[in-house]
Amino acid sequence: MIYLLGGPPRVGKSKISNLITARHGISSVSTDSLGAVLENVLDPQTAHGLFAVSKFNELPLADRIDLMVEETRRRIDLQIAECRATWQAVAPFIRREAEEGRDVLVEGVAVLPELVARLGETDYRAVFVGHRGEDHEENIRRSAAEDDHDWMRDASDDYIHAFAVFVQQMSHSIAREAHEHGLAYIEMSELPFDDAVDAVIRSLLGKE
Q: Considering only CA atoms, which of 149, 197, 160 is closest in space to residue 9?
C-alpha cells in the first residue's frame, strides 16, 4: 500500500512520518529528497518551477517577510509551482512502488490534493494535515528551539510570524482542495499535538 501524507511546511509531517516508521515499520521517503534528485539533473533556466522556492529564498529577508504577509497567495503559488515540478519524480516513484507491491509512506509538501487525485488506479491512502490556528507562530518557535539543527532556530520573530501567516493560509487552501477531491484533512490545531498525530495515523493506516 502507498501511504501519502501532505500539508504545508512546519505542520508536523516529518514527525508523524518518523513515528509511523518506528511504530509500524513502514519505510518512508520525503518529497524533498525526490525533488533534490531532479534539482541535480535539471537546468534552473528551464525547470523554473522546481527552483521557485529557492529563488524566493534568495530575496532579501525584508522582501521575503513582506511577500509572505502582504502577498501570501503569491508565496503559496511559488510553493505550488515547486510541488508540481517535484511531482515529476514523485508520481513515477509512487507508481513503481505500487507495482512492486511495497508498503511505503511518501510525505512532503509536494503531496497536494490536486496531484494525488491524478494517480488514477494506483492503490493508495492519503491524509492531509494543516495548522490554521492563531497559535502556530508559537508552535514554530518552540519546535525550532527544541532542535539544534532546525533551519528556523535563529530566525527573527518577524520572519517566524510571516512564515506562520503563510502556513495558515496554505492550510486553508489545502483543506479546501482535499474536501473538493474527497480526501481526508486533519486540522492539527484542534487537538493536543500527540492526539492529532494519533488521529492522522488512524486515518492513514486504520490503526493506532
A: 160
CA gap 164, 141 in Å, rounded: 10
Which residue bears the cell 509572505? 68
Average pLDDT of the segment spanning 177-205 = 93
Which strands, in side-by-side order, build the sheet including 184-187? 27-30, 104-108, 2-6, 124-130, 184-187
Predicted TM-score (pTM) of this structure = 0.93
Q: Which of 50, 49, 25 is nearest to 37 (CA)?
A: 50
Give residue 48's pLDDT band: very low, low, confident or very high (50, 70, 90): confident
CATH superfamily of 2-205: P-loop containing nucleotide triphosphate hydrolases (3.40.50.300)
| Widest distance between CA atoms in the chain | 48
R_g (Cα) of the chain, nearest Å = 17
Domain ranges of the chain: 2-205
Going through 53-121 in order, the beta strands assigned E by DSSP cover 104-108
How far is CA 130 from each of CA 29, 47, 51, 108, rounded to the nearest angstrom? 19, 28, 23, 12
